[in-house]
């Protein structure tokens, strides 16, 4: 039974992720029994007319144009940051200082220094009961949560290799304009930070191991693009003139994991024909498990311990009430999609706030991903030499 004073949410930003988070906040109290009610109080953006329209469309009670004024309000409990990476640190640190619980989109920040500042602020705030979490939403796809559980149970045995890839193709067209995601000062890095961050986090999450050293290469395939005119983000249109792409279009890197496994990673916006193709395959001495985002209601399992003439990858349908999150939705066999992870994220964040526990992924885990991203960049700058991610304390 949901009772008590509602947690009132302010969302800062209203692009693609703003839409996805709005779906999450709207569905969470409707489909799950939350321990406290949640209210979509205010959405914040710089363009007053556009943010007012977003508020009406997505169901926020109010809109506002000044995030500082909003995080200073006594009637706001949660600040949800869905802006480009260049403003994450400033908003998150200010919100935590103002005593607000903070959910921040991935990657946590644009630099390790910013991520460190945020993780320090989050650790300090946690001592005052203030919670923070990073939006690595794919952890909350039921099949990915199950993948983590099955590996922890030993279903594949000792993890020896991981193959992770996140492939998109929205930059193959050279006429695609210079969106903020292609500008280092706004995005920090390109495919590496935007989608490579997901597969780094997913690898660390499902294996329970950290990426401890990397070697990598980054490539910018189309160096100049038309400036962006109308709109923003992935759906903006081109204007007159050209500008320089200052981030990577593709990143390929290798990592050694803390438990001894070897991992390969590919993050690219130039995989012609691949729209949003995330795969992760974990190979162990007893078997292998594969998750494919294009078939997100299932896992594939290979059992090496089965009789030789019965071996082969089989499909586990992750649509039973006994699977993570599924019971709150539809009867067995009825599928979930991209948006459901955002609802699960809101549910888990609210539950942690109500229970007084620290949610995951924490800002410290976001910092860990940031350190891997930074190490891949340093490797690329140094002829793909191996770079240690976690330098042991002296
Ligand atoms: C664009 O590449 C993007 O929207 C990412 O920013 C998201 O994190 C991913 O979920 C889908 O693709």
UniProtKB/TrEMBL annotation:
Residues 146-289 form the GFO/IDH/MocA-like oxidoreductase domain. It comes from Microbacterium lemovicicum. Residues 7-125 form the Gfo/Idh/MocA-like oxidoreductase N-terminal domain. Keywords: NAD, Oxidoreductase. InterPro entries: Gfo/Idh/MocA-like_OxRdtase_N (IPR000683), Gfo/Idh/MocA_oxidrdct_glycsds (IPR050463), GFO_IDH_MocA-like_dom (IPR055170), NAD(P)-bd_dom_sf (IPR036291). Pfam families: GFO_IDH_MocA (PF01408), GFO_IDH_MocA_C3 (PF22725). This is Glucose-6-phosphate 3-dehydrogenase. GO terms for molecular function: glucose-6-phosphate 3-dehydrogenase activity; nucleotide binding. Its EC number is 1.1.1.361.
């Amino acid at each position: 039974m949901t009772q008590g004073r509602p947690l009132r949410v302010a969302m800062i930003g209203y692009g693609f992720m703003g839409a996805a988070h709005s779906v999450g906040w709207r569905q969470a109290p409707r489909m799950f029994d939350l321990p406290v009610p949640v209210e979509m109080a205010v959405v914040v953006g710089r363009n007053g007319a556009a943010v007012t329209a977003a508020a009406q469309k997505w169901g926020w009670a109010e809109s506002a144009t000044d995030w500082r004024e909003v995080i200073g309000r006594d009637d706001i409990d949660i600040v949800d940051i869905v802006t480009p990476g260049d403003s994450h640190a400033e908003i998150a640190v200010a919100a935590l200082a103002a005593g607000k619980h903070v959910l921040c989109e991935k990657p946590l920040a644009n630099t390790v220094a910013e991520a460190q500042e945020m993780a320090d602020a989050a650790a300090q705030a946690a001592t005052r009961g203030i919670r923070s979490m990073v939006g690595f939403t794919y952890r909350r796809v039921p099949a990915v949560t199950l993948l983590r559980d099955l590996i922890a149970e030993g279903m594949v045995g000792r993890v020896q290799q991981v193959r992770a890839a996140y492939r998109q193709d929205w930059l193959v067209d050279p006429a695609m304009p210079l969106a903020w995601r292609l500008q280092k000062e706004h995005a920090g890095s390109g495919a590496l930070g935007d989608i490579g961050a997901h597969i780094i986090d997913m690898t660390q999450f499902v294996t329970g191991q950290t990426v401890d050293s990397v070697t990598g290469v980054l490539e910018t395939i189309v160096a100049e693009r038309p400036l962006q005119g109308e709109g923003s983000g992935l759906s903006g249109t081109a204007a007159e003139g050209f500008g320089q792409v200052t981030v990577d279009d593709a990143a390929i890197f290798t990592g050694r994991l803390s438990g001894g496994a070897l991992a390969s990673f590919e993050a690219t916006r130039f995989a012609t024909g691949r729209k949003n193709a995330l795969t992760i395959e974990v190979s162990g001495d007893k078997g292998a498990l594969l998750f494919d985002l294009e078939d997100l209601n299932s896992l594939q399992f290979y059992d090496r311990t089965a009789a030789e003439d019965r071996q082969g990858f089989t499909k586990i349908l992750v649509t039973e009430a006994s699977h993570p999150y599924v019971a709150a939705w539809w009867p067995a066999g009825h599928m979930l999609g991209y948006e459901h992870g955002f609802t699960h994220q809101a549910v888990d964040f609210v539950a942690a706030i109500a229970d007084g526990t620290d949610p995951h992924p924490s800002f410290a885990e976001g910092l860990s991903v940031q350190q891997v991203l930074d190490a891949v960049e340093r490797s690329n700058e140094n002829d793909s030499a191996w770079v240690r991610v976690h330098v042991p304390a002296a």
